[in-house]
Specification:
This protein has 10 helices and 14 strands. It is an alpha/beta fold. The chain folds into 2 domains: 159 residues, D-Maltodextrin-Binding Protein, domain 2 (3-Layer(aba) Sandwich); 89 residues, D-Maltodextrin-Binding Protein, domain 2 (3-Layer(aba) Sandwich).
Length: 263
C-alpha cells in the first residue's frame, strides 16, 4: 500500500550533477532536511500559540530527519507555493496534506499514501450538512470557498461551476469565512472539516458524514533523485509496519488533546 509513485517516471529528469542522489547529498552535506509545510491544515499540520509547527505531517518529517541523522527545518508557506518551492529546490520535500494526482506526479515524485482523505463540506447552514452530492451545492445562490491551489479548489470549479467561488489562502481563513457567514460552505479534506467542527463548538458548524472523493495524501519529493525516493519509501513502510503511523494518526485525528495549543 505504501509503495512509491513516480520514481521511474522521474529518472529521466536526473540533475546534471555526477551524483546519482543530488538532493540526498545536499541534505547530508548541509546536515539539515528542509521540509515545506502550510502549517495551517489541522490535524495534518498547524501552528501553535507559541509559534511551533505540529501535526501528523510534522511527526513524519521528524522521523525522516532523525533517520538521516540531520536537523529538521520547517519552511512555512502558502499551500499554493509548496510544490513550486520543491521544484525550484527551495525545500527538499513537501509534507503538507498534498493529494497525489497524475498532474502533480508528472512534475514531482510521491511516496505514499500515508493517509487516505476525501472531500468534505464545512458549513454553518444545517440543511447543507445532509447533502449527498456536490451537485446539491452547484447553485448560483451558494457561496463556496476552498484552499487556493488545492485539489479542493479544482473540485469546486469542476463540480460546482454555477456557485460563487472565493478562494482562501489558508484553512484558517476559510473557516473564518464560514463562521462569519461570508460563504455558505468550505470544501476541504474531510478530516479538516471534522476537526473544525470539534474546535469551534460555539459556532454550530456542520459537516457531511461521508467524504465525496478518494484522496491519497503523499510525501512530495524532487524529480531526479530516485535514491531519496526509495529511502523515504522504505522509511514510510517501516513507520507503517511498526504501528507508529497508526498510533500517530489516532493521536492527531481522534484525541483532540492538542486543541488548546492552537490560537
Amino acid at each position: 500500500m505504501l509503495g512509491f509513485l513516480g520514481a521511474c517516471a522521474q529518472m529521466g529528469a536526473v540533475n546534471s550533477s555526477s551524483s546519482p542522489a543530488p538532493v540526498l547529498d545536499r541534505i547530508q552535506k548541509r546536515g539539515e532536511l528542509v521540509v515545506g509545510t502550510a502549517a495551517s491544515m489541522p490535524p495534518l499540520n498547524m501552528t501553535t500559540k507559541d509559534g511551533r509547527i505540529i501535526g501528523l505531517d510534522i511527526d513524519l518529517a521528524n522521523y525522516i530527519a532523525d533517520s538521516l541523522d540531520v536537523r529538521l527545518r520547517k519552511e512555512k508557506m502558502l499551500f499554493k507555493d509548496l510544490l513550486p518551492a520543491l521544484e525550484s529546490g527551495k525545500v527538499d520535500m513537501v509534507i503538507s496534506g498534498v493529494t497525489i494526482t497524475a498532474e502533480r506526479n508528472a512534475k514531482v515524485a510521491f511516496v505514499g499514501p500515508y493517509y487516505i482523505s476525501g472531500k468534505g463540506v464545512l458549513t454553518s447552514v444545517a440543511t447543507l450538512s445532509s447533502i449527498t452530492s456536490p451537485d446539491d451545492l452547484d447553485k448560483k445562490e451558494f457561496k463556496i470557498t476552498a484552499l487556493e491551489g488545492s485539489t479542493s479548489e479544482r473540485f469546486v470549479k469542476i463540480q460546482m461551476p454555477t456557485a460563487v467561488y472565493t478562494p482562501a489562502e489558508d484553512y484558517d481563513a476559510g473557516v473564518q469565512m464560514v463562521i462569519e457567514g461570508k460563504v455558505d460552505a468550505m470544501i476541504a479534506d474531510h478530516p479538516i472539516c471534522v476537526i473544525s467542527v470539534a474546535r469551534y463548538p460555539q459556532h454550530d458548524l456542520f459537516t457531511i458524514v461521508s467524504p465525496f472523493t478518494y484522496e491519497p495524501l503523499g510525501i512530495a519529493l524532487p524529480a531526479g533523485d530516485p535514491l531519496l525516493v526509495n529511502l523515504v519509501d522504505n522509511l514510510l513502510d517501516s513507520i507503517a509496519g511498526s504501528g507508529a503511523l497508526e498510533d500517530a494518526t489516532r493521536y492527531w485525528f481522534e484525541k483532540g488533546e492538542w486543541f488548546d495549543q492552537l490560537p
